[in-house]
Amino acid sequence: MFKMKDVLITFGCSWTFGQGSAYKEGMTEDEYDKIYLDKDLCWENGWRRHVVEHFDFDHINFGLGGSSNDKQFRLAQKFFVSKRFKEIYQQNRKIYVLWGTTSVNRYDFWIKQNYQYEHIFLKHTDGQDVHPDLFGRNSEPIDHIAACLTKYSYYEPARVKELELQFLHWNQYFKLLGIKNFWYDTFSSFNYSVDLPNFFDLKKRRRDLLSVLVNNHREKVKSKIPIWHIDDFVYARDNNLLNPYTYHPKTDGYKQLGDHMIKKLQEHI
Fold first, then answer.
1. Most buried pick, 143, 195, 218, 269, via CB within 10 A?
2. Given this model, what pLDDT does residue 129 score?
3. Count of CB atoms within 10 A of residue 146's CB?
4. Domain count of the chain?
5. Which domain holds residue 256?
6. 248 in a structural domain
7. DSSP 88-124
8. In whole angstroms, what is the distance from residue 8 CA to residue 56 CA?
9. Looking at residues 6-29, what average pLDDT do you find?
10. What does the pLDDT look like over 112-146, one tens digit per residue?
């Protein structure tokens, strides 16, 4: 009798999507701009392919470049009441959810002038202002909303608390459905106050995917720099671990992340 494959569902931002993974050394910025968002190349060179092929999963991905936690939660709410999910669930297939957090200074709002949801980034993770090209077709309302959020609303500890509530909510939801779900931080290791056994390396202070790349490189070169003296992003940039244009991992870096995810999933499933 034909056995249907288990299903892996992924949520996250550009590091989950595989953005920039097709970068080659010496590539010009114009050449890079033509390929860094290519869906097929991001799949081929990103970490998700390694995980899916290793476990022989069917796969559904919601991770997108520039995505916020807000957007991922919205997409999850929509998917898990959809006909597509109901069909998968009724087939009694094992379902695994792998969910990556991203920067809490990203938002997702409906913009009526554009008639769609748009990303709103208050700051990049390196502290620089966001380039206006990232702002959709009509940036004026987004600029105003971002200014108001920055002045009157944004407070990182509060945003992290909101994340914690989402962790607890989705953990309970998936448990009721018999779905195994796992969380990981992408490039910010927040200090969470909730106990989450299904959060990869939660007890580690530096547990995010960026830290994985940095730690792997430090072990490879036998670095003697004390770990508390390291800014992971600066280290990754200065040691050529990220591409020079959008600071995403290179193909080898994504392969390392795939190996990391495979190891973590093997420990839990």
1. 218
2. 41
3. 22
4. 1
5. 7-105+154-268
6. yes
7. HHHTT--EEEEEEE--TTEEEEEETTTTEEEEEES--
8. 10
9. 97
10. 988 999 989 886 434 444 433 343 445 788 888 98
CA distance linking residue 41 with residue 162, whole number of Å:
34
Q: What is the pTM of this model?
A: 0.91
Please provide the DSSP assignment of 220-267 as one string: HHT--S-GGG--HHHHHHHTT-B-TTT--B-HHHHHHHHHHHHHHHHH
Residues near 78 by Cβ (< 8 Å), separated by ≥ 6? none
| pLDDT score for 127 | 43
**Judging by DSSP bridges, how do beta strands 106-111 and 116-121 pair with one another?**
antiparallel
pLDDT at 41 over 90: yes
CATH code of the domain containing 35: 3.40.50.1110
Q: Tell me the one-letter amino acid at 228.
A: W
Q: Is the pLDDT reported for residue 243 higher than 90?
A: yes
Tell me if 62 is assigned to some domain. Answer: yes
Full 3-state SS string of 50-75? HHHHHHCCEEEECCCCCCCHHHHHHH
163: its two tokens: 């994340």
182, 98 in Cβ contact below 8 A?
Answer: yes
Percent of the chain whose predicted confidence (pLDDT) is above 90? 81
How high is the pLDDT of residue 142?
A: 86
Determine the Cα–Cα distance for residues 208 and 219; give it in Å rounded to an integer. Answer: 17
Residue 128 domain-assigned? no
Is residue 30 a part of any domain in this protein?
yes
Structure tokens at 112: 């009526």
